[in-house]
Design a protein that fits this description.
Strand content: 35-45%
Structural class: mainly beta
Radius of gyration: 12 Å
Number of helices: 1
Number of strands: 6
Mean pLDDT: 88
Oligomer: single chain
Order of helices and strands: EHEEEEE
Number of domains: 1
Strand order of the largest sheet: 1-4-3-2-5-6
Length: 82
């Protein structure tokens, strides 16, 4: 099972500036402030992060969001970077 976590406005704005990988979704890698990394995650409409049912992700703890790119890792941005 999965659930969706609504991201913060600053995170949404960041994702809106990045390209989609498909219709209405992006595949991202996320790093939390505690160093935990979440790879290959789906964000719908630049707004809702899909997580596993047993995971608790606080959007305030997201340090870095980048588009998932296995080839070269481009797209890394800290939350709040413009």
């Amino acid at each position: 099972m999965t659930k969706k976590v609504k991201l913060l406005d600053t995170q949404i704005k960041l994702l809106e500036s990045l390209p989609e990988q498909g219709m209405g979704f992006q595949i991202v890698d996320i790093e939390l402030k505690n160093g935990q990394k979440l790879a290959n995650r789906i964000v719908f409409n630049s707004t809702y992060l899909q997580v596993n049912e047993e995971e608790f992700i606080d959007p305030l703890q997201i340090e870095l969001i980048k588009l998932h790119d296995e080839k070269n890792g481009n797209g890394a941005k800290k939350v709040g970077d413009n």
